[in-house]
Design a protein that fits this description.
single chain; 292 residues; alpha/beta; Rossmann fold; 6-stranded parallel β-sheet; 3-stranded parallel β-sheet; 10 helices; globular
Length: 292
């Protein structure tokens, strides 16, 4: 069993980006600039956004964090987004999800200019991704592709089963892995809460991508020997024995599934760190596009 180490791989990617940024600065260019908007005080979101700011510092990016109150009106948030859309000093930005219930997330995603949408959520970028055109691939699927590539995991002709159909992971993952690309050419089955005989389907999989948000859902009896398992889930579960009062669990029952796997991602330290690294990669892409 080989652990797909997202922590180490993301550190390698950040190092590569830092070298490229240093070279750009040497040529007299300014640093790439990533901005993030966070609304309210969601603990997990704050942790994640702070990690993004630290990652920007590490690779030599400029970063701006815009913190807005929980009760901000949808209109005021749209005005903030428009300000970033028209700000030439900002190459890319994200609006941290989830948003408070009184704000329409889809409307907010649509308001981000596609050229600055480094999260890859805007319909223009999702459409380009589906057509296999150059675009921003959303960070989590992009990170999974990169992990598979760097560990030289063969996907061509393999049967991939994706559990979960979210717009952020499951759906784009199924499209990307079936496309004609280096990490692709797979036969993909997408499964979800209405899928019948799920276990029969996962037992046929050469690669399983678990992205449904239910802790320890995928168990050893659901996979065959020699499988590759990508665990996208991350759920806080209360645990009084831990200093922080909780532990993090993935969608895969790690110990028992790992025993049958050829490759597997841990939680934490698998897909999570890759997401931030690929957000930086998208920001660098936005910057170089603007350079022409």
């Amino acid at each position: 069993m080989t652990l797909l180490d997202g922590k180490k791989t993301s550190a390698d990617i950040k190092e590569e980006i830092a070298i490229e940024v240093a070279e750009l600065k040497k040529q007299g260019n300014r640093a790439p600039h990533l901005a993030a908007i966070i609304v309210g005080n969601n603990g997990a979101s704050l942790t994640y956004v702070n990690a993004k700011v630290k990652a920007c510092e590490r690779v030599g990016f400029e970063s701006t964090l815009i913190r807005l109150p929980e009760d901000i009106s949808e209109n005021d948030l749209l005005n903030e987004i428009e300000g970033l859309n028209t700000n030439d000093a900002i190459d890319g930005f994200i609006v941290q999800l989830p948003l408070p219930k009184h704000i329409d997330e889809q409307k907010i995603i649509m308001a981000v200019h596609p050229d600055k949408d480094v999260d890859g959520f805007h319909p223009t970028n999702v459409g380009k991704m589906a057509l296999n055109l150059p675009t921003f691939i959303s960070a989590t699927p992009f990170g999974i592709l990169e992990l598979l590539d760097r560990y030289q995991i063969e996907t061509s002709g393999k049967h991939v089963v994706v559990i979960g159909r979210s717009h952020i992971v499951g759906s784009p993952m199924s499209i990307l892995l079936s496309q004609k690309r280096t990490v692709g050419n797979a036969t993909v089955t997408i499964t979800h809460s209405r899928t019948k005989n799920l276990k029969e389907i996962t037992l046929q999989a050469d690669i399983v991508v678990a992205a449904l948000g239910i802790p320890e859902f995928l168990t050893a009896d659901m996979v065959k020997d020699g499988v590759t398992v990508i665990d996208v889930g991350i759920t806080r579960v209360e645990d009084a024995t831990k200093k922080r009062g909780f532990r993090l669990l993935g969608d895969v029952k790690f110990d028992e599934v790992a025993a049958k796997s050829e490759f597997i991602t841990p939680v934490p330290g698998g897909v999570g760190p890759m997401t931030i690294a690929m957000l930086l990669k998208n920001t660098l892409l936005a910057f170089t596009r603007r350079l022409g």
